[in-house]
Design brief:
The complex is a heterodimer. Chain A is α/β, with parallel strands linked by helices. Chain A is 42% helix and 22% strand. The N and C termini of chain A lie far apart (26 Å). Chain B folds into three domains: 133 residues, no CATH class; 76 residues; 133 residues, 2-Layer Sandwich (Heat Shock Protein 90). Classes of the chains: A alpha/beta, B alpha+beta.
C-alpha cells in the first residue's frame, strides 16, 4: 500500500485527486494540506510515501516546502502538481529535490502510474 | 565650457590688439586712457565667456564697455573688434537667453546708447553719433539668427520628449496587456484544473452527481470571468494596430459609443486641445475610456459627465457620475483599472484621484502637467 499526501490550496482539486487516487486499490490518501506549512506538518505526522505538491500556495509555496522537506531528511518522494508543464517553477522544484511532476489534467492511468512507480525509484538530482 | 572660453579669449585678444597694437591691424585703433584700454578687453572680450551661463549679463557688460569708451573718447564705436564682439554677443543673446530676456537685452542696449548720447550732449554740447557708428541691421540679424536657432533646438527637444512619452505610454499599454494575459492564464488554469480533476475523480469513484454540479459551477465561473476580462480588453481598445492611436478628437466618438451602451454622457472640452502633444492626448483618452467603462459596469442607472480642461501648463480630466457605484465595487480585477489610470497619469508626472463624490456618485480626477514648453 502506497500512502499519499495531497498539498494544494484548491479544495476541489484536492477532492478530485483524492477520488482519483482512492479508486486504486494499492493507493491510499493519508491526508491533505492547503498550504506549504500544512504540508510540512502533515508530512512529519503521517510520513507518506508520496507527496503531491502544488507550486503556488499561500504562506509557504510548494517550492520552498520541497526544499525544507529535503533538508529535514523526509523519505517521501515528491511530485509537483502543475497545470502547464512549461512552468519554470517545476524545473526549480526538480533541482530542489522533487522527483517529478504530475499535470493536473493527467488521466487516471497516468496519475496512478506516476504515483505508484515513484517509491521504487531513486531521487533524481 | 572650453568653446566659450576660446571665444572669450578670441574676443579679448581682438579688443586688446585693437587697443594696444598698431592701428590698421584690425580696423581703426581704439583710443582712450591707459586704464580704459586695460579695462576694455575684460569688459568687452572676456564677458563672452558668460554667453551660455548668463547671456544677458554678458550683453550688458559688452555694452557697458562700449558706452564707457564712447563717453570718454567721443569716438563712435566703429572698431572691427567691437563689431565682431557685438555680432557674437547678439547671436549668443538670442540663442541662449529666453525670448523675453533676449528682447530685454536689445532694449537695454538701445537705452544705453541713448543715455551715453544724452550724457555726452549734456556735458559737452557735442552732438553724439554713437548710433551711427553701429551696424544696427547686422546686430539685429545676428540676434534673430540666435533666436531662430534656439527655437529650432527647442522644438527638436520637444519632439524628442514627445517621442519618449509615446514610447512610455506604449510600454504601459504593453504591461497592461501582459497583466491581462496573466490573469487570463490564472482563470483558465484554476477552473479547468478543477473541472478535469473532478470529472476524472467522478469517473474513477462513481460519485458523478456531486462532481457534475461542481464541474458545471466551475465552467460557468470560468466563462463569466473570461468574458469580463475580454470585455475589459475590448473596452480598453485593443485596436488592430493599423488605426492611429486615439486622442482628444476621438472622445466624441467614445462618448457616442458609451451612450449607445446605455449611459448618457455629457462631454465638455474647455480650451484648445489642438496644441496638446499626441502622447498626452492618448493618455487623456485612455483615462476617460477606463473611467467611463467603470461607470458603465458599476454605477447602475446613472449619467456621466466628462470635462477636459486644456490650459497652458496642464490638462485636467474629470469624469463624474451620479450613480450608486460603491468604491468596493470598483476594479474587481485586482485594482487593474485604477492602477492603469494612475500609471498613465504618472508617465507625465501627473496625479490621479478616484473616490466617491460628496454629492453621491463617483469621481475620477486627473491632472497632467505639460512641462516646460517655453
Amino acid at each position: 500500500m502506497i500512502s499519499v499526501l495531497i498539498a494544494d490550496d484548491q479544495d476541489l482539486v484536492r477532492e478530485g485527486l483524492r477520488m482519483l487516487l482512492e479508486a486504486e486499490p494499492d493507493l491510499t490518501v493519508a491526508g491533505e494540506a492547503a498550504d506549504g506549512g500544512q504540508a510540512l506538518a502533515q508530512a512529519r505526522r503521517l510520513d507518506p510515501d508520496v507527496i503531491l505538491m502544488d507550486v503556488r500556495m499561500p504562506h509557504l509555496n510548494g517550492l520552498e516546502a520541497v526544499t525544507r522537506l529535503i533538508q529535514a531528511g523526509s523519505r517521501a518522494r515528491i511530485l509537483m502538481l502543475t497545470t502547464f508543464n512549461l512552468d519554470e517553477y517545476v524545473y526549480h522544484a526538480l533541482k530542489a529535490g522533487a522527483s517529478g511532476f504530475l499535470l493536473k489534467d493527467a488521466t487516471r492511468e497516468q496519475s496512478k502510474r506516476s504515483t505508484w512507480i515513484l517509491p521504487s525509484r531513486s531521487r533524481c538530482r | 565650457m572650453l568653446v566659450d572660453a576660446g571665444i572669450a579669449i578670441g574676443g579679448a585678444g581682438l579688443t586688446a590688439v585693437a587697443a594696444w597694437g598698431q592701428a590698421g591691424l584690425v580696423g581703426s585703433k581704439i583710443a582712450g586712457p591707459m586704464w580704459l584700454l586695460a579695462l576694455l578687453p575684460l569688459l568687452v572680450g572676456v564677458a563672452l565667456v558668460l554667453r551660455r551661463r548668463a547671456p544677458l549679463l554678458m550683453w550688458i557688460a559688452i555694452w557697458a564697455g562700449i558706452s564707457l569708451q564712447y563717453l570718454i573718447t567721443r569716438d563712435p564705436p566703429q572698431e572691427l573688434a567691437f563689431m565682431v564682439v557685438l555680432y557674437a554677443g547678439a547671436y549668443s543673446l538670442g540663442a541662449h537667453a529666453s525670448v523675453r530676456r533676449a528682447a530685454a537685452g536689445l532694449g537695454i542696449s538701445v537705452v544705453m546708447v541713448l543715455i551715453s548720447e544724452g550724457a555726452l550732449v549734456a556735458l559737452t554740447r557735442h552732438s553724439g553719433s554713437v548710433g551711427l557708428g553701429l551696424d544696427i541691421l547686422a546686430i539685429l540679424a545676428c540676434w534673430l539668427a540666435g533666436v531662430f536657432v534656439r527655437a529650432r533646438r527647442q522644438s527638436l527637444a520637444l519632439a524628442g520628449r514627445n517621442a519618449e512619452l509615446q514610447r512610455q505610454a506604449a510600454q504601459a499599454a504593453a504591461a497592461e496587456r501582459a497583466r491581462i494575459a496573466r490573469e487570463l492564464h490564472d482563470i483558465v488554469a484554476h477552473h479547468l484544473s478543477v473541472i478535469v480533476l473532478q470529472a476524472a475523480g467522478a469517473r474513477a469513484s462513481g460519485k458523478a452527481e456531486a462532481s457534475l454540479a461542481k464541474i458545471e459551477d466551475n465552467g460557468r465561473q470560468a466563462l463569466a470571468e473570461t468574458r469580463r476580462l475580454l470585455g475589459v480588453l475590448r473596452e480598453t481598445g485593443e485596436e488592430t494596430g493599423l488605426a492611429p492611436q486615439p486622442g482628444i478628437g476621438e472622445l466624441d466618438a467614445l462618448a457616442g459609443a458609451v451612450r449607445a451602451a446605455g449611459l448618457p454622457v455629457t462631454l465638455v472640452i474647455d480650451g484648445d486641445p489642438a496644441a496638446l502633444p499626441a502622447a498626452v492626448g492618448l493618455s487623456v483618452y485612455r483615462i476617460v475610456q477606463e473611467a467611463l467603462t467603470n461607470v458603465l459596469r458599476h454605477a447602475g442607472p446613472a449619467c456621466a459627465t466628462v470635462r477636459i480642461g486644456c490650459a497652458e501648463e496642464a490638462v485636467t480630466v474629470e469624469v463624474t457620475d451620479d450613480g450608486s457605484g460603491e468604491p468596493g465595487d470598483w476594479f474587481p480585477l485586482s485594482g487593474h483599472g485604477l492602477a492603469g489610470m494612475r500609471e498613465r497619469a504618472a508617465i507625465f508626472g501627473g496625479q490621479l484621484s478616484a473616490g466617491p463624490a460628496p454629492g453621491g456618485g463617483f469621481a475620477v480626477r486627473a491632472r497632467l502637467p505639460l512641462g516646460d514648453r517655453s
